UniProtKB/TrEMBL annotation:
Keyword field: Plasmid, Signal, Transport
Pfam short name (any one): DctP
Origin superkingdom: Bacteria
Name of the protein in question: ABC transporter substrate-binding protein
A cellular component term, taken from the record's GO annotations: outer membrane-bounded periplasmic space
Length: 336
């Protein structure tokens, strides 16, 4: 007959209790998340979001599942962010500049001609500056996980080819709804029309607006070539995108699971940028084959475009205070 001392019996009962608690905790951490974004299935941003979902599932041993909702199916960016803060959407991927409605410093990412190339953008957003801005979102109920990219933006319209800066004047152009984008379009003599992205195709198709500006991948994936004839390669603005998470949801996770999600986000961001950049040249060729007439501004016209937009940069840079100076200091180090 096996005899237990009182001490041994207590130790055994404590071990069983600990195992049960651990098992219950693991069970509680099994869940399905929702991730919302505006671009459709097959776009590099959706490919990146799906990679993130794959990595989360793999790193969690299948405990976590991320369902990706592309194409604005859960609404526009503003309602998505609100739902994320409330905890009803878990992740959102959106233009970093849109987060200026939460933290004004994010406006800096919408300034025209900020980055000369993608390598500069990577160094800034992945470095202390980009991480500082993401950290500022915490008090707004948002966790900034990683930066992916939309890329450099270009102009399209249904009326005429853009060969000179003056050709832009008079066009009614959709812009992301914020002050910087409205001002730079006005500076070129065009008419800005703030509009949520899910409404854009219909507005172009119905001729409610003449044109829009987006990276090549967005123009192709959303089939804007069906309702826009002319594409001008201007590269006037670079858009980092932020993958963000609800702080309510984040705070409910165990520290190990928080790290798991953070690691998956950073790994997916590197993957997504490579996908986007590898596709860029092919995207331009596909748009040409789809019937778009492509023009590229000469070096002299590009210089004129920069000069036209400088007052907008000065105006909004001054309003941002030290933020623009911090970013420019980072760029100065890179350019030495």
């Amino acid at each position: 007959m096996i005899r237990f001392t009182r001490r041994a019996l207590c130790a055994a009962l404590a071990a069983v209790a600990t195992l049960g608690a651990a098992s219950g905790s693991a069970w509680a951490q099994e869940r399905t998340f929702k991730l919302a974004l505006q671009n459709p299935k097959g776009h590099p941003l959706e490919i990146g979001a799906s990679k993130f979902a794959e990595l989360v599932a793999k790193k969690s041993g299948g405990r976590f599942k991320v369902n990706v909702f592309p194409g604005g199916t859960l609404g526009g960016d503003a309602p998505n962010v609100s739902a994320l803060q409330g905890g009803t959407i878990d992740f959102v991927q959106l233009n970093s500049g849109i987060l200026a409605s939460q933290v004004k410093a994010f406006e800096v990412y919408d300034l025209p001609f900020l980055f000369a190339n993608a390598a500069e953008a990577d160094a800034v957003v992945d470095g202390p500056f980009g991480q500082k801005l993401h950290g500022m979102l915490a008090e707004k109920g948002i966790v900034g996980l990683a930066y992916v990219e939309l890329g450099f933006r270009n102009l399209t319209n249904s009326k005429k080819p853009i060969k000179t800066v003056e050709d832009i004047a008079g066009l009614k152009l959709r812009v992301i709804p914020n002050a910087i984008n409205i001002d730079w379009v006005k500076a070129l003599g065009a008419n800005p029309t703030p509009l949520a992205f899910p409404e854009l195709y219909a507005a172009l198709e119905q001729k409610a607006i003449d044109g829009q500006e987006n990276p090549l991948s967005v123009i192709l994936a959303n089939k804007f070539f069906e309702v826009q004839k002319h594409l001008a390669v201007t590269n006037h603005q670079y858009n980092p995108q932020s993958l963000i998470m609800s702080k309510k949801v984040w705070d409910a996770l165990a520290p190990a699971d928080q790290k798991l999600i953070q690691d998956a986000a950073r790994e997916a961001s590197v993957f997504q940028r490579k996908v986007n950049r590898d596709k860029s040249a092919d995207d331009l060729q596909e748009l040409k084959q789809a019937g778009m007439q492509v023009t590229e501004l000469s070096a002299a016209e590009q210089a004129k475009l920069r000069d036209k937009l400088k007052p907008v940069i000065d105006k909004h840079g001054a309003a941002l205070g030290p933020v623009l100076g911090e970013l420019q200091a980072e760029l100065a180090k890179l350019r030495k």
